Amino acid sequence: MAKKTVFVCDVCGHESYKWLGKCPACKGWDTMKEFKVEKEEIHSSIAPVFMTDEELAEERIILGIDEMDRVLGGGLTKGSSILLGGDPGIGKTTLCFEIASRMDELGFPVLYVSGEESLRQLASRKKRLALKGNLPVLTTNHIDDIIKAVTEKNYHLVIVDSIQSIYNSSLPMLPGSISQMKDVSSRLIRTMKNQETTHIFIGHVTKEGAIAGPKILEHLVDTVLYFEGDKMLPYRMLRTIKNRFGPVDEVGIFQMRREGLISVENPSEFFVSERGDIGSGSSLFPYITGSRPIILEVQAITPKTSFSMPRRLSLGYDINRLFILIAVIEKALNAPFLDRDVYINVTGGMKVNEPAIDLAIAASVISSHRDKPIGKNTALFGEIGLTGEIRKIVHAEMRLKECERLGIKRVLCPAGVEHGAGIEIIPLRNVKELYNYLV
Ligand SMILES: Nc1ncnc2c1ncn2[C@@H]1O[C@H](COP(=O)(O)OP(=O)(O)OP(=O)(O)O)[C@@H](O)[C@H]1O
Ligand SMILES: [Mg+2]
Fold this sequence. Notes:
Elements: E1 3-9, E2 15-16, E3 32-38, H1 53-56, E4 60-61, H2 66-71, E5 76-77, E6 81-86, H3 92-105, E7 110-114, H4 119-128, E8 137-139, H5 143-152, E9 157-161, H6 178-195, E10 198-204, H7 212-217, E11 223-228, E12 235-243, E13 251-257, E14 260-263, H8 267-272, E15 282-289, E16 292-301, E17 312-315, H9 319-333, E18 342-346, H10 358-369, E19 378-380, E20 383-384, E21 390-391, H11 396-405, E22 410-414, E23 424-428, H12 431-438
Parallel strand pairs: 6-10, 6-11, 7-8, 7-9, 9-10, 17-18, 19-22, 22-23
Antiparallel strand pairs: 1-2, 1-3, 4-5, 11-12, 12-13, 13-14, 15-16, 16-18, 20-21
The structure holds adenosine-5'-triphosphate and magnesium ion.
């Protein structure tokens, strides 16, 4: 097969047909590495075909791991290519082991390729997780071993843990480098797509820019999932970043236990269950992720500042939106936060980018500032505009239903929202009305 030469930056993946001392994209010196790529053979026999619904309908397998099925958009699609990224130690291997074991139980041939753990380690993990069945495992770091194994037997699912640990020994670059990953992943994807083998690649994400590793693969695969969470807390979130077979804003929630990952069926209860009698600065917000609502708690404190410039910090809410919101509240209420720090926390480690949370944030800030508790049985949702007006948002009905299910008695929301008898609706038109209600 004919080969052509390209030069690929080992840091950012920028490609060039000639060698350059300095990468034009990331400005790194001496980062361009030579890379031989095989030119694709032209298949002259390939011709256009008509798509018929019966022949080309997508085949899905429901794994029975509810939260995983949810983020995949309703099960594992046959022949799809999935990238699972996440911080070290977050539980990627655990999750994939459980998926592999489920597929094995369902009677599909599965191969688990591990480039990171020895057979002994994997066996003890299997024992700890109490997984049934006899899962075939291949411990290797060489791409050729994997290609050989997957072409010899037609597996339904192949898991590669991790893509950074697999390399092509005929390339001069170190395993884990961008060039290695590009070569390895494109060969694996091509081989397995041809055979219609579903494949999951595990990719590491580190804080020091190594995120570029899995990022570069994102356009090659069908689905990108990120496994997130605070390692100190027992729950983990599986977020869809890209999905060619389903919606992208789904979040799966798991609880990490010694015996493995457990799907959390009622995340609202899970997130607000620790709330006892609440004080000022705390409010409830019905958040919509993908196709389901989750009630979250929004907390704020506004202590007197000891800095020349007051501090604004936010966990789970966009900091720039917080700056705007504080300015809007200040203008509407004539209550300067000039000598006040503002700290916001959305509990449970959720990152909310829905504008509907604005009202709950504003309520928590005012409640903390004026030391007026909002109350355990009250929730809020609505977007706040620059003139302090409270704007309508989508999925109001779904949010209200979830509030009702959790026993919330009162909901403050934009005017015009209606609901049955179970909940008292308090319509608000602007921030001033919110203030008058709270104080
Ligand atoms: N013996 C154990 N008892 C309880 N929990 C354990 C035990 N061993 C591992 N865990 C849990 O599993 C987590 C590690 O999971 P896992 O190995 O699946 O993560 P990973 O994302 O694959 O990590 P890596 O990036 O190192 O490959 C640990 O953070 C810990 O919470
Ligand atoms: Mg692992």
